[in-house]
Structures are given as C-alpha cells and as structure tokens.
Specification:
Strand content: 15-25%
CATH architecture of the largest domain: Alpha-Beta Complex
Oligomer: single chain
Mean pLDDT: 95
CATH class of the largest domain: Alpha Beta
Largest sheet: 7 strands, mixed
Bound molecules: guanosine-5'-triphosphate, magnesium ion, zinc ion
Low-confidence stretches: none
Strand order of the largest sheet: 4-5-3-6-2-1-7
Radius of gyration: 25 Å
Length: about 400
C-alpha cells in the first residue's frame, strides 16, 4: 500500500483490473489529488467514462441524489463546481477542481451546479459488491486519502474495453502499478477488521467441554460461530463448512459428519479452534445442493453438477474465517484439512498456516465417488487406496 501511496503522490494512476465480473481495466486515482494534467492523461489513454466514485451513504448525507435508473450502475446527479464565472465544467482544469471538491466532505450539493459534467457514482460496501467502484474507493482510502476515486475505463486502439493485455501494456509503458480487484480485496480483509467477538459461553459436548463463541459480523452478516478448547502456542484449527445433511442427519452421501466428529476429538485432545461456517453446500445453499444431488443421481459428478447449475465448482470464500481467527487472536495456525484451497485463501487473507494436518472422514459405498472426485478435480490430498470403505 505504501508503493501505491507513493505512486499516487508522484501523479501516477493505478491500473485496476476486474478479471471476473466485467473483464475490464480502469485507471484509478484519488479525487483529492487530481490535477488538470492527470485528468488529461486518464481521458487520453483511458477513453472510457470519466467518473468520481464515493461511498453512497456519504454522498446521500451531503445531499447528492440518485438518478432514476433501469441500469446496473448507481448513478448520482452529475455536478460541476463553479470555479469561475465562465465555468462550463468541461475543461480539464475545471473537472480537476470539481473532483478535488467532491473529495472534500465539507462541500454539499448546494455548492455545485447540476446537472454538470463530472459523473458521480455511489459505491456500496466492498463486502457486498466487488466492482470497480467499491474496490477503487477502498484502494484510495487504504492509501491514506479521502475515499473518493476518479475512475476511467481503458479502451484499446479499437475502442474495445475488454482488452486486458492492452491495459498491462499501458502499465508497462508509463510505469504504473497494475492491481486486480481480488488483490485489493485481500488487502482490505487483512487491514479492516469487520468481525468481533460477541459472546462466549461454557459448552459441554460428548467430546468434552469447549467454549462456544459468537461474533458480531459486518463482513457477511451470517451467524458463524466457533468452539474453542484452551490451547498453548499454535492452535489446531478446523474450518468446517455447514453441511446440514451430513452434520445433523447422518447422511452417508458425504464425509462431513464424520470429519466434524473427528475434528472435535482432535481439537479436544490438543487444544484449538473449530470454526463452523454457514456456507452450506460449498456456498450454494441447501436448496441448490439438493438440486446438485439430483444431477448426481443421474450420474454427473459433484464438480460438474455445480457448474451445470451455473455456479463455480466451489463458491466458498474464507475471508470470514481469517477475520474470525483474528478476532480470537489466532493468526498462526495448524489447519486440519485435505483441501489446498483453504490453505491458499487463508494465506492470501493474512493467516500464517504453519502446517496442514490431514483429516479423513469415513468412506462408504455412497460417498466413495464423491471423495474420488474431490481428489481428481479439487486436488484434495487424500490417498483413496489407503482408506477402508465401510458399509
Ligand atoms: N455443492 C455441493 N456441496 C456439497 C456436496 N456434498 C457436500 N457438500 C458441501 O461441501 C462442504 C464440505 O465442507 P468441508 O468439509 O468444510 O470442506 P472440504 O472441501 O470437504 O475440505 P476438507 O477441509 O478437506 O474437509 C459442505 O458445505 C457441504 O455441504 C455436493 O455434492 N455438492
Ligand atoms: Mg466499469
Ligand atoms: Mg470435507
Ligand atoms: Zn456433507
């Protein structure tokens, strides 16, 4: 973030790439710092729409209002700050002043002329939406500036906005930092703590006595919880995703229930933490998981079933797990899992995974194919030939 801050102070925008949603690259620069030269640079080499984005709630408090829209974008009334009597709002010098003023929270709608020539967009919260608007506002804020960003899409020689290679070339040519929206999100989750402990209580179970911990959660607003057994040093951690069929109904279609029991035994023995995440069905929910089961009954595997239903093979995001661990004071862990994606994601979110400890569930004739698919298509680290199949 220091590098980004320095670059902004030197008058260089960042190129921010959205590899997933829109497949677009935008110039991003703090509205607070923008000069006529930078307005000229981003409009000349970007060629997309020149906009200022700010937090939606702040814009409303300052009197800016939303335009009626049947479009995905969250447009507010475009404005000009009248810097001189002859102001028309369009010259780079005037647009720069309008941007600077928008970044100044003391100005309100009445100080501007409208409808003007600087397009204004409201960003929602980054945990709810991961578009250019939200990520650019948080990027500028994390770099230490007022959370108002200037963004302009980068179009190639033919006017195409989806040419990411062209955007990387522009970055090289002008020595600009290129970031992706996921990279900004990882940094945001590492820095901004949105989860805190709400309550802790005595929790006896058939595996032994734990403490149950609930959380105040401004990240995804779901009721995740933890079981903690007192530990010294690096805790053994299990991050278990909800599987109501396996955890509560003893389903044999998967190995979740037996993994949960084994994990509680191991954590009770060595001390550690179990996080129970409400991401049923690898994040697609119970209704869709049953739809995926229906496809699996027709012979499709668990990976392809998700894809056929229009989801990613695995929709889970472990940002919430990283923040819960931080709230519990555990930033270095030993992780109980066979799933390499859990390790990769946690590390991106700033958790140090000292060791991965395998966790085998029980195999049976109903879940064997499911487990094999995990090994073959999700790169789970399980040696299937060594496991005993029961029932
Ligand atoms: N979409 C979908 N989800 C499933 C299916 N079977 C089980 N699940 C879900 O898969 C998740 C398994 O969670 P975990 O055991 O924490 O994670 P894992 O990917 O198995 O990785 P491990 O840490 O090695 O156990 C649960 O949310 C289950 O509800 C299926 O066929 N389709
Ligand atoms: Mg865009
Ligand atoms: Mg599992
Ligand atoms: Zn399951």
């Amino acid at each position: 973030m220091e590098i980004v801050r320095e670059q902004f102070l030197q008058g260089k925008p960042v190129i921010l790439i959205d590899p997933e949603r829109e497949v677009e690259a935008d110039f991003v620069y703090p509205a607070e710092l923008i000069t006529p030269e930078i307005v000229e640079f981003v409009t000349k080499y970007g060629k997309g729409l020149f906009c200022v984005v700010g937090p939606e709630s702040e814009l409303m408090e300052r009197g800016f209002f939303k335009l009626p829209s049947n479009y995905g974008a969250n447009y507010f009334v475009p404005v000009d700050f009248p810097s001189t009597k002859l102001a028309t709002g369009i010259p780079a010098s005037e647009r720069a002043v309008t941007c600077n003023k928008l970044a100044d929270r003391n100005t309100i709608l009445k100080d501007y002329k409208y409808p003007g020539h600087v397009i204004l967009i409201g960003a929602s919260s980054f945990s709810k939406r991961k578009g250019h608007s939200e990520s650019s506002v948080e990027l500028v804020r994390m770099a230490g500036f007022s959370p108002y960003s200037v963004i302009v899409e980068i179009l190639d020689e033919k006017g195409d906005s989806h040419n990411l290679e062209y955007a990387y070339d522009i970055g090289k040519r002008f020595g600009l930092t290129v970031l992706t929206i996921p990279e900004v999100w990882w940094e945001y989750v590492r820095r901004v703590q949105l989860v805190t402990v709400k309550a802790r209580a005595f929790f006896p179970t058939k595996f032994g006595t734990f403490e149950i911990v609930s959380f105040e959660n401004e990240l995804d607003f779901k009721e995740h919880f933890a079981l903690v057994k007192k530990y010294w040093g690096v805790p053994l951690v299990r991050i278990h995703s909800e599987c109501v069929t396996g955890d509560c109904l003893s389903s044999l279609r998967c190995d979740c229930g037996s993994q949960l029991e084994r994990a509680l035994e191991m954590i009770y023995a060595s001390g550690g933490i179990l996080l129970y995440l409400r991401q049923e069905g690898r994040g697609i929910g119970l209704a869709w998981k049953v739809a995926a089961y229906e496809l699996q009954d027709k012979g499709i595997d668990t990976y392809d079933a998700n894809v056929q239903l229009g989801f990613k093979p695995d929709e889970r995001d472990y940002a919430i797990a990283a923040q819960m661990l931080k709230a519990l004071g555990a930033t270095e862990i030993k992780l109980l899992t066979n799933n390499p994606d859990k390790v990769t994601q946690l590390e991106a979110y700033g958790v140090v995974v000292r060791e991965r400890v395998p966790l085998f569930g029980k195999l049976n004739k109903h879940n064997l194919r499911y487990i094999k698919t995990k090994v073959e298509k999700f790169a789970h680290k399980i040696d299937v030939s060594n496991l005993n199949v029961e029932g």
